[in-house]
Write a structure and sequence with these properties.
The complex is a heterodimer. Chain A is an alpha/beta fold. In chain A, 44% of the residues lie in helices and 13% in strands. Chain A has a 7-stranded mixed β-sheet. A 6-stranded mixed β-sheet of chain A has the order 1-2-3-4-5-6. A 5-stranded mixed barrel of chain A has the order 18-19-20-22-21. Chain A is globular, with a radius of gyration of 34 Å. By secondary structure, chain B is α+β, with helices and mostly antiparallel strands. Chain B is built from 17 helices and 20 strands. The chains are: A alpha/beta, B alpha+beta.
Chain lengths: 1131, 577
């Protein structure tokens, strides 16, 4: 028997070529009872390794290869003095050549024997990682080990191990000393067993055999046991090629130039016990020791020892009593004005929840979240719980969520159940940006740098990255790599035309060539392998005691943050509780809107202090706008698919928005629930129920299951499932669905239904709806939380368009549309958007008062009552290439005194570079500066007129963009102190003013948008001649008519649920027209449809229930402008 | 007046020149390593088919009737040389501006060659005879002529004083292309100018020319002014005249054909003396010698024919490692070369030329060992090459690969001697460490064990055995038992055969799997009992293998046995001494 105790997975990042699951699968096939994973400087892959092993019935031993400096007899406190010594200096040139660690001596393989050992390993890794920066190579010294050896067993390693390094450096004596030093450091176990094993590896190298002979002699001399391993880097020999490609990438070489950095053969795969027996026939004890050592390694990740932190409570209180009191207070506030019946129900539900929380000992968890929300409230940071937490009345009372689960009759068991034995999952939505960072830093401050950390995000190879990186390894030039990257981008929906080989052919690669074939194979092999560790956007884990005893911590790229070595899913799998502090762009936009409203809307009639918690519940304008699908910029209801649904669903109350948010999801679409629901809603189909008993559950959704909670309740009613069992059902059918697990639950479901007298077709129908839907279903509580934000965004857009638009523009990127579309939509609704102007613009977009005659005329159908005389001024942040410090310096300097000239600007704001000034000039942001002499401006000011306004009113500007460009060129050339103050003799620019087309090109190039007319507006007459209808025309044309539309492509989508259809949105000056492109037309015109900025589409108009689109039959490019408009494509 | 000859799509035309049948076809020129070749040039016909620069070869497969050719530097060099010849046949003052672009001074040529339009027409005709299509422009200054030739197709004559007017219609890009290729600045700078002009709305040279000078100077500096002058056609400069190439050549036409090397050497000696004397007179040496022998064609019946029309040329080129000027050495080198590569037919005409170069100036250090003189070294190398064959002499350079014995052969050219190092770094480290190790001795017993190990290692090191490689490896037939070789027989040498009584290995290596020349091999060290001794007696000798003579006294020989895993063939690669 043999146990492989030294293997690396792809989580050694570019040093291993198989994922842990593959290693375990091969291990199981080979009949090995156990296996150890020793990734480089971490335990990144251990959760997946552990879980895969658990499923396969294999014991997963944990360990790591720790990068070390050579163990010096002279000990230095910092331990890293020797980091400067290269492998060459320490005498291991082979390692120097191959290792990714340019500084350091060797890799020390460590195996975890006990929980203490695991904790020591985690602390050791954390210590060495946090000692250096993120991108610097971390390494440990012998001093580090002295503190952390308990429970760890050390191997002497293969070619990168301490024995090999010492042998190369100083010969057998040095090797002997090195092993002896290890025995001194790691000592012996209580039963006299050695904690050091001399490792033998055989990869059919001569040099290795010499090392083995020395190793055997050393082992005999020091009475240290031998251990046979294969130093595994991949599961099967075929992965050697990928391992070689990784090696080349790691060293920034190509396969052709990597030379001896590459492996000499393909022997580092997982070998069978028989093969290992044959290899080590002369040292059978080395093989036998693997089994003996495996039996000593008692630790598995089941014994992690994680504990969620306890919340500190005042003396005399328990956490539970404290929570009860906070909940009671919250309940008073939430339900104080509710009717008696609701109060009674709420009290009953809260008591039930608290009992369960007490039983599951979760009071601390709820208090910690309450504490976070309290911090946000104190700091005036918007925070709202999302996900299943909104099912909890306790969460609602504590202020964690904003949806009342009692009045909405939400299912608590979806959030928490006794049977499940899992921690609840609470996610907090916070405004993205600085405010979220403040909350994160609060968590660090509260629980300590070693007590809290962000979860990691394992970046894996996907098509594009694999194609690019493997191309680099093959030695492709940069042009080819770019072409490949562009061609490999795929849509969510994939068919045979989207296969990687097809895409590579599109990039001009000849896959019949053997070299290209190899490249293609490498791309496929690299798919889904981890590439590097990133940081999850918001997941945080916290721990009672030291988190670095549970999982190693690493420095994150942002200062002040640390990150654990496991990703979010792995943390959840290991039972570590995470709190998601998610940054939501819309939350930030809402908050910014509120501030702008507070500062700018002074209309006494409006009583302008807007409170999101107390918005008018049934605002008719909001619902009429939603019914018209006039939703650009609104949260969750702005996508093309949502817009196509809104006129049919016609939301009339808040719950309709909840349904609207949930219905355009893969679950209802794949489960064919959307059309039945809409038909029933429109009264075109009778409302029926699969079984009369389900009427209470499905009544609100007209007999069609739309939410996960409904499925759980269906199971509870029809099959007598408990809440926990129902949740178990949902999980069984979730993303990680297991056939066996599903079958067991399905049988249970059937048995329950049979017991309740539900048989035959009805039973099948219920089973069918549950199984087809559970995978993608949306929780009602989550939809309700989102619907609240959606309603708030709709309310602000309808009533405070200027503030909402400015806030949206300031929080980009977010949502479905580019800023250019948001600006055009706002203009169509009557909002004036002013161009960037260095005499007026702040860094962010701001609001200004303009004369009412300046407001653009909105069509009757589009007009919103908002803005009064408020206009949005484009902020300097929209000038591409303008750095924030330079922009802010400009604003700061302007606040001291206005700029007299462009030269004055250049001199007073030295932070501005030439290219930045040229960009500002090119988009007209300097026009107001240079338009007239200082005296003229002063006169204007003294007359109390707004200078920029007078410019606009004055018609054609006398100082144009090219005048400014002309001035900028002179201003940035410093002519020396003597001539610097000398005015230009003839300051008039000889350059011609930009044409409309040139201004458009400049606007899009430098800001990505234009505040002037839409490019299509300039060509309308021409379009009419071509028979092209505008977007606004379509509403008045009959269904089924063949016609042409044309416009700027603003969005392309090919959803996974749409059978290969591509949806395109074309924008013109009147609005947005939608087109559907069938797969065959797409394949025929792929390049045109994907790359053209302006298109003409001919097809059949489909106008049903005010949902309008064109079914495309013919497409052709439209020459409108050279301006680089951008489409938001959902790849 | 100055004229400019500009060949549009020069890379394509250089190819079409040799394949005139392609003139009417769409042609794309590719460059790059297969299979990633990309289009770098197109002719007009190809451009009209919407092929784009940068497209890959496989993308072009969909274009029917598109002819693909690989870029040929030699053809471009020839075409450009032809262009220079053509220009030089008109004017003694010619500037070699860029590949496919030549400027010539026509001043004073009108009385000789006729009026300017005629000269231009003649130029065009002459270029056309060389199978090249050119734009030809004449103007009062070279840069105006260059811009006009770049920008206007066909023939353009710009009367003096009307440069600005005529050039005004040209796009600024034409000026910037000239700027990046013909001027001192690089393409990046040209891109920066292009961006500035684009922002200013300057699209045509007329607009650039019209800008006021002082403000332009304030904004764009002297380079801006220079560009503006060029745009106005007002820049004047002298041509960088191409100096006529010095030709050091001698020819002899023979009354009777020579068939032996000896009389040829006699004549070559005389010619070399002349060439060297001329070189010496100009203080030059020869970098390369070219020998062209015109041979009499042989009739089918074996008789030589001396008909001039049926003769053929035999050419040999000697590239010398350093410029030399020694008749004796040149003669010896030529003799050796001709011995290795005999002309194969009677010689009727001898043409010898030398490429001139500045002679080597070398001052040796007083204490540096003297290197062999390059002349003598080259002669020696030539002699060796004459014996072992060409391509088999030089310095071996080991390649960075796991492939056994992989090397490349470079021309033997020893560099300057470096001061001898007393010890290698490794040795220094080792000795240093040893001292340190000794100072560390704390545990006597441990030290004893260590010393024992060290001694063992020393013994191992001292008992070095040598591997005598067979070049090429000897094919072998091998019998395997349980995947181990047990018997082998060398196919080419009967004495290498027998029972394999001891093996070490296999040692496996493989690589270059991403290339077409992938390899995989397995090595064994084997002891062969060549005299069929019983295994037990062979085993007694296992630790003391005999030296590898053909009749081993003990009957046990150590070999390296190799199997090529891709072909399955076995080889005996070497024998251990």
């Amino acid at each position: 028997m043999y146990v492989e105790l030294h293997s690396r997975s792809a989580f050694s990042f570019l040093e291993g070529a198989s994922i842990p699951e593959e290693l375990i699968a091969v291990c199981a096939n080979l009949g090995m009872p156990a296996m150890a994973l020793l990734d480089r400087d971490g335990v990144y892959g251990s959760p997946r390794f552990h879980l895969a092993a658990k499923r396969a019935g294999i014991k997963a031993h944990i360990g790591a290869e720790v990068t070390c400096t050579s163990f010096s007899p002279r000990r230095h406190p910092s331990g890293c003095e020797l980091r400067a010594a290269s492998f060459e200096q320490t005498g291991c040139p082979q390692l120097a050549a191959r290792s990714s660690q340019p500084r350091g001596g060797f890799r020390l393989p460590l195996l975890v024997a006990s929980r203490a050992g695991y904790q020591n390993l985690c602390r050791l890794l954390t210590k060495m990682k946090l000692r250096v920066g993120r991108k610097e190579g971390a390494c440990a010294s012998d001093l580090d080990f002295i503190e952390h050896t308990d429970g760890l067993i050390c191997l002497t390693g293969g070619e990168e191990g301490p024995l090999a390094a010492a042998l190369t450096q100083g010969g057998p004596q040095a090797a002997f000393d090195a092993v002896k030093r290890l025995t001194e450091i790691f000592g012996r176990a209580s039963l006299g067993q050695s904690n050091v094993y001399v490792e033998l590896q055989r990869h059919f190298h001569r040099e290795e055999e010499y090392r083995n002979r020395v190793a055997i002699e050393i082992a005999e001399s020091l009475h240290v046991p031998l251990l046979a391993t294969n130093g595994v880097n991949y599961a099967t020999p075929r992965e050697r090629e990928l391992a070689d490609a990784f090696t080349a990438l790691q060293h920034h070489r190509t396969l052709a130039t990597a030379g001896r950095l590459l492996a000499p053969n393909a022997e580092r795969y997982l070998k069978s016990p028989a093969a290992m027996r044959a290899l080590f026939a002369d040292v059978p004890q080395a093989l036998a020791n693997t089994v003996e050592l495996s039996s000593r390694l008692e630790f598995t990740l089941n014994d992690l020892g994680y504990e969620f932190p306890r919340y500190p409570v005042p003396e005399g209180e328990t956490m539970m009593s404290f929570l009860r009191e906070r909940t009671r207070e919250g309940m008073q506030s939430r339900y104080g004005r509710a009717d008696a019946e609701l109060k009674k129900r709420a009290r009953r539900q809260i008591e039930r929840e608290l009992s369960l929380i007490e039983k599951l000992n979760l009071a601390g968890y709820f208090l910690i979240l309450w504490d976070l929300v309290r911090f946000c409230r104190e700091q005036n940071i918007l925070a709202q719980g999302r996900g299943s937490a909104a099912n909890s009345a306790v969460c609602y009372s504590l202020g964690i969520t904003a949806v009342d689960p009692i009045s909405m009759e939400l299912l608590f068991e979806r959030f928490l159940s006794e049977e499940r034995g899992e921690w609840p999952d609470i996610d907090l939505d916070l405004p993205s940006g600085d405010e979220r960072e403040r909350v994160i830093q609060y968590v660090y401050q509260r629980y300590g740098q070693r007590g809290a950390a962000m979860t990691a995000n394992v970046i894996t190879y996907r098509n594009r990255m694999a194609a690019r990186e493997m191309g680099k390894a093959m030695g492709f030039d940069e042009d080819t790599l770019k072409r490949i990257s562009a061609a490999v981008a795929t849509w969510e929906f994939k068919d045979e035309n989207d296969a990687l080989d097809r895409r590579l052919r599109d990039a001009g690669l000849d896959l019949t060539h053997p070299r290209m074939r190899k490249y293609f194979e490498l791309c496929l092999a690299a798919q889904d392998l981890p590439r590097h560790l990133g940081q999850h956007s918001g997941g945080m884990v916290i721990c009672e005691g030291r988190l670095d005893s549970v999982v190693p911590l690493e420095p994150a790229s942002m200062p002040g943050r640390v990150v654990v070595q496991w990703d979010k899913e792995d943390c959840a799998d290991m039972g570590i509780i995470k709190v998601d502090l998610l940054g939501l762009g819309m939350m930030a936009a809402l908050k910014d809107s509120l501030e702008l409203i507070r500062n700018h809307y002074r209309d006494p009639d409006k009583n302008e202090e807007v409170d999101l918690a107390h918005l008018p519940a049934d605002d008719p304008l909001v619902y009429s706008t939603l019914q018209k699908a006039d939703t650009v910029g609104m949260f969750q209801v702005e996508s093309r698919a949502q817009m196509a649904c809104l006129p049919r669903l016609k939301p009339q109350k808040f719950y309709d928005i909840v349904v609207q948010v949930a219905i355009i999801r893969p679950g209802p679409i794949v489960g064919n629930m959307v059309n039945p629901f809409l038909k029933r809603r429109q009264g075109r189909e009778a409302i029926t129920y699969p079984h009369p008993s389900l009427e209470t559950v499905l009544g609100r959704t007209l007999g069609v299951p739309l939410f996960q909670e409904q499925l759980l309740r269906m199971a509870m009613i029809t099959a007598n499932f408990t809440g926990g069992e129902a949740e178990e059902l949902r999980r069984a059918m979730g993303f990680k669905r297991s056939e066996a697990r599903m079958k067991v639950i399905e049988e249970k479901l059937r048995a329950g239904m049979t017991r309740n007298g539900i048989h035959g077709e009805t039973q099948e129908q219920i089973i069918q709806s549950i199984t087809s839907f559970a995978l993608y279903g949306f929780p009602e509580s989550h939809a309700a939380s989102f619907a609240l934000i959606a309603y708030a965004s709709a309310y602000l857009k309808c009533h405070y368009l200027a503030a909402f638009t400015a806030a949206l523009l300031n929080n980009q990127p977010m949502g479905f549309y580019h800023p250019a579309t948001i600006v055009k939509d706002a203009q169509r609704h009557g909002l004036k958007v002013l161009p960037m102007d260095v005499t007026r613009s702040d860094w962010k977009c701001s609001l200004e008062t303009v004369a009412s005659c300046q407001r653009p005329v909105a069509s009757k159908s589009n007009a919103l009552p908002d803005c009064g005389n408020l206009a949005v001024r484009l902020g300097l942040k929209y000038a591409r290439g303008l750095r924030e410090p330079a922009g802010r310096a400009l604003v700061r300097e302007r606040s001291l005194a206005p700029f007299a000239s462009i030269q004055d600007l250049a001199r007073r704001v030295p932070e501005l570079r030439k290219d930045e000034l040229a960009t500002l000039a090119e988009i007209g942001a300097l026009n107001a500066i240079g338009n007239s002499p200082q005296s003229h401006r002063d006169t204007e000011k003294s007359n109390g007129k707004n200078f920029s306004v007078s410019l606009c009113l004055g018609g054609e500007s006398v100082f144009h963009r090219r005048d400014a460009l002309w001035q900028v060129e002179r201003a940035v050339r410093w002519s020396g102190p003597l001539l610097d103050e000398l005015p230009e003799i003839d300051g008039k620019s000889p350059l011609a003013a930009m044409t409309q087309e040139e201004r458009l090109v400049a606007d899009f190039r430098a800001t990505g948008l234009t505040v002037g007319p839409h490019p299509m507006q300039y060509r309308r007459a021409e379009m009419k001649k071509m028979g092209i209808y505008s977007a606004a025309d379509l509403a008045h044309l009959p269904n089924g008519r063949r016609l042409r539309i044309g416009g700027c492509v603003i969005a392309r989508q090919r959803p996974g649920t749409a059978k290969g259809m591509m949806f395109m949105s074309l924008e013109d000056e009147t609005g947005i027209a939608n087109a559907i492109v069938a797969p065959d037309l797409l394949h025929k015109n792929r390049a045109l449809l994907i790359s053209e900025r302006f298109l003409m589409i001919e097809g059949i108009l489909q106008n049903q229930d005010n949902v309008i689109h064109i079914r495309a039959e013919k497409v052709s490019p439209l020459r409108v402008t050279r301006a680089e408009t951008v489409s938001h494509d959902f790849h | 007046m100055f004229a400019c000859i500009f060949i549009p799509d020069f890379s394509v035309q250089a190819i079409i020149r040799f394949e005139p049948e392609l003139r009417a076809r769409s042609v794309a020129v590719l460059t790059g390593r297969p299979p990633l070749e990309k289009v770098v040039a197109l002719n007009e016909s190809a451009r009209q088919t919407a092929v784009e620069i940068g497209a890959t070869k496989s993308q072009l497969e969909t274009w029917e009737n598109l002819v693909l050719r690989t870029r040929s530097e030699s053809q471009e060099t020839s075409a450009h040389a032809a262009l220079l010849d053509c220009a030089q046949s008109f004017s003694p003052e010619v500037e070699d501006t860029a590949p496919g672009i030549v400027l010539l001074n026509l001043a004073g040529l009108e009385p000789l060659l006729g009026p300017l339009p005629k000269i231009a027409r003649d130029l065009a005709q002459r270029v056309s005879q060389m199978r090249l299509e050119a734009n030809i422009a004449a103007a009062a200054n070279p840069d105006a002529a260059l811009l006009a030739a770049r920008g206007f197709p066909g023939m353009t004559l710009i009367p003096e004083g009307r440069e600005a007017e005529r050039l005004g219609d040209l796009p600024v890009d034409v000026l910037l292309e000239s700027f990046s290729s013909g001027f001192s600045s690089d393409a990046q700078e040209a891109a920066r100018w292009a961006e500035t002009f684009d922002r200013w709305g300057i699209r045509k040279l007329r607009a650039l020319a019209a800008l006021p000078e002082v403000p332009v100077s304030e904004r764009l500096g002297q380079q801006g002014i220079r560009l503006q002058q060029l745009a106005r056609g007002a820049a004047s400069r002298n041509l960088r005249v191409l100096e006529p190439r010095l030709i050091f050549a001698e020819s002899v036409e023979l009354e009777y054909p020579i068939v032996l090397l000896e009389p040829l050497a006699f004549l070559l000696n005389r010619m070399l003396e002349q060439v060297c004397a001329r070189l010496r007179a100009r203080a030059l040496a020869a970098q390369e010698l070219r020998l062209n022998l015109e041979l009499a064609a042989t009739q089918p019946n074996g008789c030589a024919s001396f008909t001039r029309a049926r003769t053929k040329t035999f050419t040999r080129t000697l590239r010398l490692p350093a410029p030399m000027l020694d008749v004796k050495i040149f003669l010896k080198l030529l003799q050796l070369d001709l011995q290795a590569h005999p002309p194969g037919a009677p010689i009727v005409k001898i043409h010898l030329s030398a490429d001139p170069a500045r002679p080597r100036a070398l001052q040796s250090g007083l204490f540096q060992p003297v290197f062999p003189e390059p002349e003598k070294l080259e002669l020696t190398l030539a002699r060796i090459a004459g014996i072992v064959g060409e391509g088999r002499v030089g310095s071996v350079e080991l390649l960075d690969t796991h492939r056994e014995g992989a090397f490349a052969l470079r021309h033997f050219a020893p560099g300057e001697p470096s001061p001898a190092e007393p010890e290698t770094k490794h040795e220094v480290n080792q000795s240093g460490n040893r001292k340190q190790d000794k100072s560390m001795q704390e545990n006597d017993s441990a030290c004893q064990v260590g010393e024992k190990l060290e001694e063992n290692a020393k013994e191992t090191m001292s008992a070095v055995i040598a591997l005598r490689l067979f070049r090429p490896p000897l094919g072998a037939s091998v019998t395997l038992r349980e995947a181990k070789p047990v018997r082998m027989r060398c196919l080419e040498r009967e004495d290498i055969a027998g029972e394999i009584v001891w093996t070490a290995g296999p040692w496996r290596s493989s690589g270059d799997w991403s290339e077409q020349e992938g390899w995989s091999r397995e090595e064994w060290e084997i002891a062969v009992s060549s005299c069929q001794l019983p295994v037990s007696s062979c085993q007694s000798d296992e630790r003391e293998p005999t030296t590898g003579n053909r009749q081993p006294a003990t009957g046990l020989v150590l070999y390296r046995l190799v199997q090529d895993k891709l072909s399955g063939n076995w080889f005996v690669e070497g024998m251990y001494d």
